[in-house]
Amino acid sequence: MSELFRTIIEHVSLYAIPVFLFLIPVLAFVKKVKIYEEFVEGAKEGFQVAVRIIPYLVAILVAIGMFRASGAMDVFVSILSPFTDWIGFPAEVLPAAFMRPLSGSGTLGIVTELMTTHGTDSFIGRFASTIYGSTETTFYVLAVYFGAVNIKKIRHAVPSGLIADIAGIGAALFICRIVFG
Amino acid sequence: MLNYVWLFLMVCALVFGAINGKLKEVTEAAFQYAGIAVDIALGLIGIMALWLGIMRIGEKAGLIQLLARAIRPITRWLFPGVPSEHPAMGAMILNISANWLGLGNAATPFGIKAMEELQKLNPYKDTATDAMVVFLALNTASITLIPASIIAIRVKLGSAAPWEIIGTAIFASTVATITAVTFAKLFQRLPVFRIKPADTTASSTEEESRS
User: Fold this and answer.
1) What mean pLDDT, rounded, does chain B reach?
2) Closest Cα of chain B to A67: distance in Å?
3) Which pLDDT does position B206 carry in this prediction?
């Protein structure tokens, strides 16, 4: 069953982009759109957008990088660990959960390390993999998307994103306990 | 909000960096990550140009609007402030589908395009709209049907069943997504997060200074 699901999704993922890249220009051409001119006109924006997000990304990534390098996370992990022990959250995985909203590559590093020491098919390995696969890097997404349109006052975006991350990690623990024991 | 997050990260970095004797590493990280930020942004140029070009063709042909109309029942509830045939809707659908399929390279340009379209509907240019926050909520807690990068690492580390985390990851990300949208919608009514009238003047002066 999961094998079938995987095959279907993999095929859809494989064909989605080529089909899309083919279909849009052809349909537009039929509708008498000047496809080459319009493409170039749209593509022009690519550079400006990329440059526009630089200051936002620098601000967020520098702060996160400094935070990581300072070892501050260990302190938060030790503060939280009595609570997480109580709900049956493996303490080893706590740094990965903490890192998830801050840094994608950071989390991937921690998860890889966990799987190397505890084994990919251990509970810790499966749980950490589930956490990594289940959400996006909240602060990166916020910096890129709001940066692209120069928005600085982002209102409730941070609290809703972080609550969702906590819910996702909680759900990961719940489902992993049921499926992997 | 970001002011507090930023201050929190910086203060923690300096305080704990000093306590742990890691101030040198903290300084190095600051410079290193400033460079990484620029690399990431510049790395986006080509792929952004490609997808923004394709999007423009699709928009001119009316295809993006067609897509937006097709899923109106859901989007009308998620984004009540956005007209149902607005190009922003089309871009958001493409972004979310690309995320589901794990096509990160396409998802980001579509998402940025969606933000630009949403920004056209925004009266206060430096403040996020309700629709933007809901859209971002969908992206930060994004569902991925096949989390390819973690599976690749599991394969490399010799897992007997690298795929077995697909189901658990989909479950967790679905819970996260529902939570994100629910809280985005709940929080938008709170007085703390309401758009303040002072923002109008702030955005107009910035508009002038930019042009």
Assistant:
1) 88
2) 4
3) 45
pLDDT at A112: 94
A67 CA to centre of own chain = 19
Write out pLDDT tens, residues B163-196.
899 999 999 999 999 999 999 999 999 988 888 7
How many Cβ pairs closer than 8 A exist between chain A and B? 377
Q: How far is A84 from chain B (nearest CA, A)?
A: 18
Q: Tell me, what's the pLDDT at B198?
A: 57
Say whether both A68 and A155 belong to one domain.
Answer: yes
Q: Do A157 and B62 touch (CB under 8 A)?
A: no
Identify whether residues A1 and A81 lie together within a single domain: no
For B42-80, give one letter per residue: b (16+ CB within 10 A) or e.
Answer: eebbebbbbbbbbbbbbbbbbbbbebbeebeeebeebbe
Whether residues B112 and A145 touch (CB distance < 8 A) is answered with yes
Hey, what are B82's tokens?
């956005």
Which of B9, B46, B157 has its CB closest to that of A67? Answer: B9
Q: Is residue B122 scored above 80 in pLDDT?
A: yes
Cβ distance B166 to A157 less than 8 Å, yes or no, reads: no
Kindly report the nearest CA distance between residue A152 and chain B, in angstroms. 6
Name the residue among B120, B147, B115, B121 with its Cα closest to residue B134.
B115
Q: Where are the domains of chain B?
A: 26-195
Q: Which ipTM score applies to this complex?
A: 0.88
What is the domain count for chain A? 2
Residue B64 with chain A: CB contacts under 8 Å:
none
Residue A8 is part of which domain span?
A: 1-43
Count CB atoms within 10 A of the CB of residue A56: 22
* Claim to verify: residue A52 and residue A38 sit in the same structural domain: no
**What is the C-alpha to C-alpha distance for residues B101 and B98, in angstroms, rounded to an integer?**
5
Chain B residue with the nearest C-alpha to that of A149: B116
